[in-house]
Request: fold
Amino acid sequence: MAAPVAPPADQPRGLAPAAAAGPWQMALREFRFWLVNYRRTWRGSIYSSVLSPVLYLGAMGLGLGTLVDAHGLARLGGVSYLDFLAPGLLAAAAMQTAMGESTYPVLGSVKWLKTYQAAAASPLRPADIFHGHLLFTVLRLAMNCSIFLAVMAAFGAVRSAWVLAALPAAVLTGLAFAAPIESYAVTRDKDQSFAMLFRFGMIPLFLFSGTFFPVTQLPAWIRPLAYVTPLWHGVAICRSLSLGTADLPGVLAHAGYLAAVAAAGIAVGQRAYRRRLYV
Amino acid sequence: MPDADVLIRASGLTKKFGDFTAVDGISFELHRGEAFGFLGPNGAGKSSTMRMIGCVSPPTGGELSILGLDPVRDGPAIRARLGVVPQEDTLDVELTVRENLLIYGRYFGLPRAVISERTARLLDFVQLADRAEDQVEPLSGGMKRRLTIARSLINEPEILLLDEPTTGLDPQARHVVWDRLYRLKQQGVTLVLTTHYMDEAEQLCDRLVVMDRARIAAEGSPRELIEAYSTPEVLELRFRIAEHDQAAEKLADVPADRMEVLADRILLYVPDGDVALASVRALGLEPLTSLVRRSTLEDVFLWLTGRRLED
Reply:
């Protein structure tokens, strides 16, 4: 038979410092849970992270791009369609990654597997659980966007070294989606709402936020709608950096908007996680 | 009992969900080293009480102190010293047995070396050492429960909370879990458990409260409760369905402390079952079956509430 599981009653148990950890340390514990979890699925996720930009840049950038370029480049600002499209797709890919990571995995953790509840029974607070999951989402965004940038470079779709700064910009774009959507997802009991979110949220944004064509091609009355979406700001910032046309005030304005959306999402999420896990 | 040995003190503890009162002003104390139980039917407020103790459910009213700390203000510090076995498994079934313990140990900020040393010991203890590298998903219900118990011990908790620890398990798996919990108790681990199984409460609890409709109906050791709220013996009689009601009327003449007429049986609470059975026969009644048994906590509950535990 095994040695006793518990130390004698008169000895102090556990490790008291565990409770004294700061919010970052607590969030990192949840982050590491997601890392362990990811160990099983990372290979498959890398394949699709590489394949998706190859297919899009190949079909749209090269295939469709040849047709577009034959009609003149003036409306795209004098650059080839591939060069125009690629940074837009980078921002859109960040949005897609964010939505994937912040919907089903959140609902699964709170409703199906109840791993959030398991964490909530430990010293972690709901906000730590939220922050840890968000940190992991940031890691996934950084991975996918890096792969996307590498594929872009391989396609020769990069015109400026500033494109490296598009990596944090794309991650920030993703975070501006992930934070509010995780806050929403944690309140759900069924996954139907996600199908709606994808169909009526993600796809229209994907198509009309300047990824495939300048928003100026849209009727004037509808443009403001595109301007309030985080994706439009993400596309604008990534494109200006990739094309080498970025100016500091523009970058700051777009990044500021994205940061504000992300911060609002985090504030709402802290409450939402608390309400869901502390019943 | 000196104050240092009171690990949990609740006074007028209340939990409301909107208009619904799940826990209605209960008071109790938990002492170091004891196995304390909440016995009651589903919906009595046991799990709500457990969640308040686990610092994942802020009380609506009353006072609650755990390890001398305030559950709302000091939640993380208290939870660092608790072990929790929830009613529903919250294991990550996609991970292996070992990974589940690794993750949980990290939640408590334990170094990897400490976690792996404790993992070996705990998996041995819950008889899952040979499944350490297996995924959790295909494990049986009893194995998952034992893994949850191992996980709850990773931080060497001062209090182990078990919410319905054997609900949903088959009898054999239940006995294995009981055996492990009994060993923990012998090692001096303080246990708090909820159950609607009177045999579970009798086997594991040094002291328990009977909960019904959000309140505490009685408190004591299993033996004290049986002595206070039941008779030493119970005579269980079963008659033909057609004769059931008539027999119940006639049985009123048999000297008994109390009689319970259930749908399928009649229970006579008496000091001596055989003597009572003789008086039943003397009345000219011949039951289909008769059974003389000792009183249990089930009888206590019936006595206190007029209802059965498992309905």
About this structure: Chain B touches chain A through 49 residues (CB under 8 Å).
